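User: Could you check the structure of this?
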Amino acid sequence: MKNTLLFLLLCIGFSASAQYSNPYRMTFDGVNYFITNKGNGTVSKLNSTFAHSTVISGLHSPNDIFFGSVAGNSAIVVIDSNKLKLFSPTTYGSMLTIAISGATEAHDGVFNPSNPNEFYISDRAGNKIIKGSIGSAPFYAITFSTLTTNISKPAGMIFNSQGKLLVVTDTTDSEVYEINTGTGAKTLKLSTTKDNFNDIAQDGQGNYYITCWGDDNLYRYSPSFTNAYVIATFNNPSGLLSNLSYDYLGICCHNCQKVEFKFYHLFSPLADIYTCVADTFYADFTPSYQGIGTYNSGNQFVVEMSDSNGSFSNAIKIGGITSATPPNSIKAAVPSGTYASSGYKYRLASTSPTVLSYFEKELNILTSPSAYISDDDTARTCQGINVQVGKSPQQNVTYHWTPGHLFSDSTSAQPELNTNNTGTFGIQLFVKDTFTGCAATSHSYFSVGSELAISGLSDTLTMCAGDTISVGVNPKPYIFSWTGSGEITSNSISNPRFFGTSDVQLNVTFSDSSSTCFGMDSTYIKVNPIPPIEITQDVKTYCFGDTITFINSTADDYLFNYTTANTLTPLRISDDTLQYLGDNAGTYFYQLRISDANTGCYKDLGNAYIVFEEVPKPIIAKNADSSNLILNFNYKGEYVWHLLDDYTSRDSVVKTSINSIANPEKINRFNKIWVEVKDSNGCSATSDTFNLKRTLGISNVDQLFSVYPNPSNGKIAIECAQPISKISLFDLTGKAVYFILNPNPYNIQLPSIKGMYILEVVMDSGIGHKTLILN
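Assistant: Sure, the predicted structure tokens are below.
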């Protein structure tokens, strides 16, 4: 359909002149074209196949023709003799005639695209622009007013792509104005030395086209009204129609009695192409096909390739050039690959604007020979082992291998590679089909290796029993096979780990990935034993305050090293001895590391020790009636009482399971007494010595001392004729609540307890008591 339309458009300009009579203006309803003929007062129609017919006659001198909705009806509107004449767009019968009030010579008309109830008419003889306003239903009354004056001979008008009203002048030194439809203000957009502009149109790229009767030229201007360019020459070119849907411009030629259509963008490939895969060819443009429009900056002209069915639904771009003007040719190439024997086409296209060529041409892809070397990127072998490359010969194909000295026959399809020298060599195969002329080239590499070697493997490795050790081979892209022991993490990796317990020799065989080159190596692994010494797993115990000693010693080539808890106070730390004070009760764990001084192999053994709770220190005192010697607590343990003779220093042991001694007055007054308390763990604590001396003969010692103040707030003083060895405080039940040995008799601070208590004072001559009130 597109090609048919193209031929019709190319031929329509040469239609018989009898069809038109001074054609002047043109409009389009989406299917048909309508042209006014000023010579015979008719309107011509061109249908979709460009067949001509006369649909309206009887007009006086029809100027412009356009479509609009007037008086509530869609109509073909013709400006004829200062009248708007409305015709049916289907039957072409007359509908309405409206006089254009105030018009001297109504010339061109155009509806406002943003307001369908407004239209504008150029008054060529009246030098003004008239505004038409369509009223509301039901009468749709049309009123006319002057929008702009003082425009000399306004002729053709358009609303441009920015919605601005433009008008050209039919004057000497013609001009182009922009009219503000709201205020009527006019702005000069173009001033020329050209005479008698007739009409104006605009394309999709913003270029303006103006017909000029002064020099019979059709001009193209840039969007800024610069770069005037002559598109074509006619005998009085008049009305213009820009059809952006079909990308062409219609031109009425007034005196040459024809209507012509010119494409804005028109190009086509010149000829069918025969090419080989991946070969370069040039797609030439048909030189006689040239559009009148322009292309945007950054536009690309491209060559597109169809599929084997000739479909461009998934077109492949195979060439292109960035250009704002159509080139003569474009360099292209069919991509590498395998193609069907026929059915491909190619076409040309532009990207800005997007335009396709009006013709498609055959793209014949010739079969190319296969330049096959090998399945791998690099052919590998070892010295002395020949390897063959290539494949069976193809019919009508010649071969050429380079560099020639690496091959047994550089013109053979399957030569052998020379393996005299080691190294990696680049090789190339060039093949050519002697029938089609198509050629192909392939590149690869040829690697000749000597006997393989690995690095990092020692002759001998040493380890301790129970450990693991890496054999130490650096990674290589080889195939590995280890033998000699099943106690390795893998027998097929480059660097396995050995975890055996006895000496072994590991052997390894390795080859390259193609299993063409091989190598062998081995290592001896010496497994040293760990020290055989064991320790008794007993838990040692210590009493609170004991010194705990750990000795690091060397014996029989073994080093004993202790590591213990750090929650005890260190007493002395040296290289060979650790001492701690057992000042924190609890269970503690320590580690003994036994190392072989010769091999460095070691083992760690753990144990624990216990520090028992501190045994409270006992304090000896008499009870309230001095009948017993008692301790300050009742401890669950063994009590050992000791009597000490002052004169002989003889220590007599009195054992008892209770915490008191009865009838202390029977004990020789020259003795002292002390007590040792032992708990079930064997830990003990001893009291201070208690002096049992008495002064005989004084039966009532209560009178020998006095206490003041009494009552007291807790701070008292005692006046006594004899030294005081102890004071005690008892509540009224006889329970001791406080005692102090060898007090300062003039400054005694009792505990903060209130009530009535018995104060006991121990002197050399006896024990006295007084009642004491504490506030």
